[in-house]
Amino acid sequence: MLNAVHPLWQAIEFGMKKVPDHVLGLVGYVDARNALARAHSFEQLALFRRHLAPSIRIASPVIRALCQTDLNLSSALNWMQPPVARPKPKPWWPAPPLDGGRAGPDEHPRAFRLRHRTLGVIERWPTDPRGRLGIRLRSGCLDAEVSIGASVLWTAGPIAHLLLADSVPATVAAAMPGRSVEALVSHPLLAGGYEMTAVEQLDHGWTEITFSTGTVGCQVSVVHGQLTAQLDTGGEQLPLDLK
Predict the structure, then answer these.
(1) Residue 144: pLDDT above 70?
(2) pTM for this prediction
(3) Of 51, 29, 31, 49, which is closest to residue 39 (Cα–Cα)?
(4) How far apart are CA 131 and CA 103, in angstroms?
């Protein structure tokens, strides 16, 4: 049966143009090759999702809070793609922070992309008026990186970091460890009674707040080829050893 979608097939079907036989053969070859490539891509994605679902065990509670506002976790996970072999980054490319390294609001967007290109999803770019939003999978835990106004919040398993776009007096910073992060910053994403472990003054008037969040359970399954995620709403689980 002729493929009426292809312009050349349409031309033949309606007698609008005489197409040489060698062109017909080339078009048929290209159509067959594209069909095989699509089938391979679908099979690869299906296999990737079957392996991805059981590998996601826990998530940062920040992701649970995001799901109550502007994140559809199931939809985001379905945008994850199988890792592909990539050329080694050039020496002048900005390296992404490792495992909770600093993510500055003034960094190049490429660094944000590099952090989420493997087992990650970018919901919003740093240039978005609403601020950045990305999630990524590491060691079975879903982590988040999100803007809070001019500040940036990112998680690494049971630990979270807030790069605060303001300075904190040294005497106040020294008294903060052991207290709730809400003693310094009030925001729905931080409303969990999370205990600060460090408050560090940085250059250019910035402050990095490190606090413990624990983790919550996360069950992911494949239903009709699509990933479906559900986060526990009960108490937090024991922190995951990420070493």
Answers:
(1) yes
(2) 0.73
(3) 31
(4) 13
